[in-house]
Amino acid sequence: MDTHDLVVVGAGPAGAVAALHALALRPGASVLLLDARDFPRDKTCGDGVAAEVFDLLDDLGVTGVRELGLEVPMLRLRTPGGRVAHRAAPRPNRVVPRRWFDAALVDAAVHAGAELRRHRVRELTDDGDRIVLDGTLAGRAVVGADGAHSVVRRALGGPAPRPADTAVAIRGYAPVAADAETLTIEFAAGPHPAYAWSFPVPGGGANVGYGVFHRDGAGSRAELLARLAALLPGQVPDPATLRAHHLPLSTSPRVQPDGRVLLAGDAAAAVNPLTGEGIFDAVASGLLAGRNALRGAGAGAAQRASMERAFGRHQRHVGALARLAVRPGFLDAAIGAAAAHRTVFDCAVRLGLGRGTVSPAALALVAGRLPSAVIRAHRRARGGAVR
Ligand SMILES: Cc1cc2nc3c(=O)[nH]c(=O)nc-3n(C[C@H](O)[C@H](O)[C@H](O)COP(=O)(O)OP(=O)(O)OC[C@H]3O[C@@H](n4cnc5c(N)ncnc54)[C@H](O)[C@@H]3O)c2cc1C
């Protein structure tokens, strides 16, 4: 049996960062990084990378990734009701094509001592003091960072994500951006929150797409593209670059049992339910997994506690806001307040792209614009305020 201290399944941002952090804490550990595909590889994504991601990579000593992307200072949000907030983000975010971003993190992990191997994992069995993968490989700990359709999550008994906790999005590359200085977001009318985006990419053009925050509300590929065309006319993606994928939202039931198997990133259903942002959550949860994987049989329990400490309050706040966002009038109130008040805009960006929580001042400014029916319905549903 080919046995390692740590086997990481999936070499996206969550997996590469888990490998990197484990090696930073225990240089010389044998870390095997498995992926079903060769790198560099495309990943279906909007390529928007929050400023906070680079802070985490700086702390890990991974340099040069910022420079692969385009700095985009502005953010523009528009509701179907016509409210527009167009401001400089508290800190500039970046657009980094995932083909480059992910390959750079994998290179850093290999440079730190991880062994990268192409292998699609199909089966895990618990052998007591180690986890066996596909009958041939074993790890004293395993990090499942194998994305939205995680085999590792299923092996742990994680339930299939509910439609309401799964977003669906399609993306492609267009020859021009809606605005070369701005991350442009156009919200759609309809029963489920949804938006179209145009994010300028390095070298010109844009990553454009459309996402719906409910699997059953997404419709066909043709319908997704029709809604993108209606919201962002002129942003026409090259058909050869179009790909759609699921996003497991952090409103999903938590899955992290005790034991030697840990989950990170999309496999842990860490995607922000307000924005579909998942790279920050993948990197942050990958960092925790890399540290906790070194705890042997206590790894799973340590990861569960770390995830709650790091994300619990944030996820409760964005979950409550995601429930409010389905009510007519909420988005207009929130974006209207963000247009009028810098403090609301900055709070919204931190909630949507990082680990922010709702500030009482921002909440009061949004609530002042809410139709009273929305407030009453939310109080009834929650039985009180969010903690
Ligand atoms: C259309 C779309 C747009 C998005 N836009 C943004 C955005 O602009 N900004 C943002 O922050 N987030 C965005 N997201 C979310 C973001 O892409 C994910 O949250 C992020 O990629 C999660 O990283 P990860 O490392 O957990 O998983 P992934 O990046 O999915 O990596 C998982 C890896 O596991 C490998 N793998 C899968 N199964 C196996 C297996 N059985 N064995 C071995 N390897 C396996 C895959 O090949 C892959 O390399 C978007 C998502 C979609 C679908």
What ligands does this structure carry? flavin-adenine dinucleotide
* Low-confidence region ranges: none
Kindly identify the CATH topology of the largest domain. Answer: FAD/NAD(P)-binding domain
Q: Helix coverage percent of residues?
A: 25-40%
Give the helix tally: 11
Which CATH class of the largest domain? Alpha Beta
Instruction: Give the distance, in angstroms, between the N- and C-terminal Cα atoms.
Output: 48 Å
Give the count of structural domains: 3
CATH homology superfamily name of the largest domain: FAD/NAD(P)-binding domain
Description of the structure:
The protein is an alpha/beta fold and 387 residues long. It has three domains: 2-70 and 96-161 and 250-313, FAD/NAD(P)-binding domain; 163-248, D-Amino Acid Oxidase, Chain A, domain 2; 324-382, no CATH class. The protein is 35% helix and 24% strand. The strands form two sheets. Strands 3-5-4-11-12-13-10-14 form an eight-stranded mixed beta sheet. Strands 1, 2, 6, 7, 8, 9 and 15 form a seven-stranded mixed beta sheet that branches. α6 (279-292) runs antiparallel to α7 (299-325).
